[in-house]
Design brief:
With 275 residues, the chain is an alpha+beta fold. It folds into two domains: 39 residues; 188 residues, 2-Layer Sandwich (Muramoyl-pentapeptide Carboxypeptidase, domain 2), CATH 3.30.1380. Helix content is 45%, strand content 9%. Strands 5-6-8-7 form a four-stranded antiparallel sheet. A two-stranded parallel sheet has the order 1-2. Strands 3-4 form a two-stranded antiparallel sheet. About 4% of the residues have low confidence.
Length: 275
């Protein structure tokens, strides 16, 4: 009897050892699989990778297999896997490098810091953020030395001004068409005081593309910190039609980098500035 009990005890011990070893092996295998999965995640190579967006990256990559991993990450971070004007985020404080677009908006009460009157090279009543204004005056002065005329015809806009403007466009062309060339109130970059529309005095700003001043701007705007905000070849990113007259102040260093690398502000912002 005693012998049988000893055998039973030994069997029980062996069973527990087997179960324990099996659990350890299974758990260790899962850990190794997780480690391997992490090591095989190529998105992690990029500093702007966001772990919470992994499934969105994978889905976007499946839908756009010809895009590079970098572009997949950036476009998802921009929210381009969602329709324009969805998944929006409020920008609550003024920042000279803030981004306002179809996913990032400011409130009706938002007012840029240091708004000042543009007292030269502008039609009456124009306002810009002070550093933007100074850079524009410097740029327009240099252009004049080169026999080029630059004039600011639309600068800072209030929420209500943009609301009336947008609604008039919708009334004439419908929402879908209006959204290709006009921002909804709160989503307009003009509300930041860091953007302006330019003409050459002689013709409408909508004809700026056909002017010598436009060529001058393409060759020189970055030297004064300005970028062409809505390029012809990046409509799917910006969400706006080509606007040769619309410029944004970002500073000389950033404008130079963007020109050298053919970037939109969205591409630059979400690679280097998004926190």
């Amino acid at each position: 009897m005693k012998k049988e009990i000893n055998v039973l005890i030994i069997l029980i011990i062996l069973i527990f050892l087997i179960i324990g070893f099996s659990y350890f092996r299974t758990n260790n295998t899962k850990k190794n699989e997780n480690i391997q999965e992490e090591n095989n995640n190529p998105f992690q190579e990029y500093s702007f990778y966001q772990e919470n967006n992994l499934n969105r990256y994978l889905n976007y990559q499946e839908n756009y297999p010809n895009l590079s991993l970098k572009d997949v990450i950036l476009r998802v971070n921009m929210n381009l896997d969602h329709s324009f004007y969805t998944q929006t985020k409020e920008v609550k404080e003024f920042n000279p490098l803030m981004i306002v677009n179809k996913y990032n908006y400011v409130s009706r009460d938002f007012t840029p810091s240091n708004l000042v009157k543009v007292d030269k090279f502008a039609i009456n009543g124009m306002l810009l953020e002070e550093n933007c204004k100074l850079a524009f005056i410097e740029m327009a002065s240099k252009a004049l030395e080169d026999n080029m005329n630059l004039r600011a015809v639309s600068t800072y806009r209030t929420y209500d001004y943009q609301n009336n403007l947008y609604n008039n466009y919708v009334k004439n062309d419908g929402v879908e068409e209006a959204d290709t060339y006009s921002a909804r109130p709160g989503f307009s970059e003009h509300h930041t005081g860091l953007a302006l529309d330019i003409d050459n005095i002689k013709t409408s700003y909508t004809n700026f593309l056909k002017t010598e001043e436009f060529i001058w701007m393409m060759n020189n705007a970055y030297k004064y910190g300005f970028i062409l905000r809505y390029p012809e070849d990046k409509v799917e990113i910006t969400g706006y039609m080509y606007e040769p007259w619309h410029y944004r102040f970002v500073g000389v260093e950033i404008a130079t980098y963007m020109k050298e690398h053919n970037l939109t502000y969205e591409e630059y912002y979400y690679e280097f500035l998004d926190k």
